[in-house]
Amino acid sequence: MSSRVRINEVVTRDGFQSEPRFIPTEDKIALVDLMSRAGYHAIEVTSFTSPKAIPMLADAEAVMAGITRNPAVEYVALIPNVRGAERALKANVDAFNLVMSVSESHNRANLRMSRDESCTQLADVIRLAHDAGTPVNVSLSTSFGCPFEGAVNPEAVLEWAGRFSDLGVRGVSLCDTTGMADPGSVSRLCHDARDRFPGLALTLHFHNTRGMGLANALAALQAGIREFDASLGGLGGCPYAPGATGNICTEELVHMLQLMGYDTGMDLSLLLEGAARVESLAGRQVPSQLLRAGPAGSPRASSCA
Ligand code: COA
Ligand code: ZN
């Protein structure tokens, strides 16, 4: 099996969307430009959501227009509805990441509609995107558990993935929105999804809410997954999920993968520079442990036993 692993950066979308202080547009642009040199497969730059729902990303058009694109990177935006899709097409995003939740209560909290209404709207979005030649991925939130309902039936996750597969999307992301996955549940769902949808690109999206983020990523790798979302510094979390915390940290995931001999094509020192930039933009310490300790084997390791 291939040792190549693709990383999608989500800090300027998932990371920033819950931050309390507005991050200036020019700082978002400068961070995306820095990340564009780090070897990512894709960068989820922003979301075209309602500015009332996510005020932090109300500058989506300006950010998309201001970045300098590297042709090797796919610049993605999160899209919740047709209105967002129309805005994103005008802004010339490379690919759409649509979003809905596998659990009804989280879908209603996050998108203010039922799952069926979401699916109907997203079918229209997919049509729009395909007419424009724009590839589509669907992020299935709460795939491993819901902050309102608890356990989520893996069969329901596969059913939603199947619905979107039938609508012709390129890929599906299985999202652990509030860190409820464990390596066992990850392994089972990844194997089942790969078996059932061999033609669908599968991405895993973990949050480290309960400290199992990297263990879950390893379980997904062992189940054959080769594409992950991650966030610089480990910033992140859904503003409509109580108790949500940061994504797995990009520099820690890449550091682990590189030590294990996987080919990420990423520049770890640039990632550490990016994580430090994120920390200064957030104005507080970010969860990244690698940012504190430095890469394994580097001379700044602590002298304590
Ligand atoms: N872009 C800009 N404005 C939008 C919009 C979009 N994609 N979708 C809706 N709006 C505006 C409407 O024009 C309307 O504006 P008005 O009050 O000035 O007339 C307002 O938002 C409400 O529109 P409505 O269609 O009633 O939507 P809603 O209030 O039910 O919200 C969503 C639905 C999906 C747009 C909203 O819940 C949302 O953006 N959620 C974001 C979810 C998210 O990103 N979560 C974190 C990531 S998982
Ligand atoms: Zn997330």
Characteristic key phrases:
305 residues, alpha/beta, TIM Barrel, eight-stranded parallel barrel, 12 helices, 8 strands, globular, binds coenzyme A, binds zinc ion
- By DSSP, the count of extended strands is 8
For CATH, the homologous superfamily is named as Aldolase class I
- Which overall shape is indicated by the principal axes computed on the Cα atoms? globular
Question: What is the domain total for the residues?
Answer: 1
- CATH architectural designation: Alpha-Beta Barrel
What are the bound molecules?
A: coenzyme A, zinc ion
Put simply, the count of helices is 12
Computed Rg: 18 Å
Helical content, roughly?
A: 40-55%
For the record, give the distance between the C-alpha atoms at the N and C termini, rounded to a whole number.
Answer: 38 Å
**How much strand?**
5-15%
Kindly report the CATH topology. Answer: TIM Barrel
Main sheet makeup: 8 strands, parallel, barrel
* Average pLDDT for all residues: 96
What structural class do you assign from the helix and strand content? alpha/beta
Q: Can you list the strand order of the major beta sheet?
A: 1-2-3-4-5-6-7-8
Q: Which regions have little confidence, pLDDT < 50, spanning 5+ residues?
A: none
